[in-house]
Specification:
Layout lengths: L1 E6 L2 E6 L2 E5 L29 H5 L3 E3 L12 H5 L5 E4 L3 H7 L4 E4 L2 E4 L2 E7 L5 H7 L3 E6 L5 E4 L7 H10 L3 E5 L4 E2 L2 E2 L4 H10 L4 E5 L11 H7 L5 E2 L6 E3 L1
Parallel strand pairs: 3-4, 4-5, 5-6, 10-11, 11-14, 14-15
Antiparallel strand pairs: 1-2, 1-16, 2-3, 7-8, 8-9, 9-10, 12-13
Length: 244
């Protein structure tokens, strides 16, 4: 697998010569208001550092959910209405109204180019905040040669992650971290959540992103590196390419 970290949640994974871009958000730096609960700075905190050609050279968009730090409506201008998108069927009405015309809506699973893509659930926070965040999804991609990639989506540690790891035994896990915080409640993976994943998937390579670009993501890459020392944990910089 080839992994390219772009910014925040946006990354590219290449499996069996197929390039997936996850949650492409192309906003310019400091163009969106801060999210309550984070530092008082406009989002995104940084610009995208990779060449535009890297962003364009993709085959499919994987869309986890429609929160503004994961879904940028302007991608329809960048990629065009016919760009292939894979997402939960929950988003059918909204995306079709926006003009996207080449969408594979997933209820449980679909097959693309011999790969099985399975929709997974997450828990986007706890208590009242978690309920307000609404549903969030991830994906398991079962590729050839027994490569299995699990993309957590926005979630904290929960039964859904544990069951997904146990059922699919992924080789690679892409974890949306940053301990994004709203009203003092963390809604994405924090240090303890990542420790739980490492414990439950001791043979998997864990690549974490979703840090350093959005004002409410309070867990920094530096803090995570200092907190967890594990050979299976990878914390890429923006623009970094990883072959695993």
């Amino acid at each position: 697998m080839k992994f390219v970290q772009i910014r925040h949640c946006t990354c590219i994974i290449e499996l069996d010569n197929l390039r997936f871009i996850i949650d492409p958000i192309l906003y310019k730096k400091n163009t969106l208001e801060p999210i309550e609960g984070g530092i008082d700075k406009y989002n995104p905190l940084i610009d995208i550092s990779v060449n535009e050609n890297v962003l364009r050279n993709i085959d499919i968009i994987l869309l986890t959910h429609l929160h503004r730090d994961h879904f940028d409506p302007e991608i329809i201008k960048f990629y065009g209405i016919n760009v292939p998108i894979i997402c939960c069927i929950d988003y059918k009405e909204k995306l079709l109204k926006m003009g996207f015309s080449n969408i594979n809506f997933v209820k449980d699973k679909i097959e693309i180019n011999g790969m099985e893509i399975i929709l997974t659930k997450g828990k986007h926070g706890s208590g009242i905040v978690g309920r307000a965040m609404g549903k969030s999804y991830g994906f398991v991609i079962k590729a050839k040669e027994q490569n299995v990639v699990y993309i957590t989506g926005d979630t904290i540690w929960c039964k859904y992650i544990e069951k997904t790891i146990k059922r699919y035994n992924p080789n690679y896990i892409i974890g949306f971290a940053g301990s994004a915080t709203v009203k003092k409640v963390h809604i994405t993976l924090d240090e303890n959540d990542i420790k739980n994943i490492l414990e439950k998937a001791p043979n998997a390579k864990i690549i974490v992103n979703h840090m350093g670009a959005w004002n409410h993501c309070l867990l920094t890459k530096e803090k995570l590196k200092n907190t967890i020392k594990n050979i299976n944990l990878c914390i890429p910089n923006d623009g970094e390419i990883i072959y695993v």
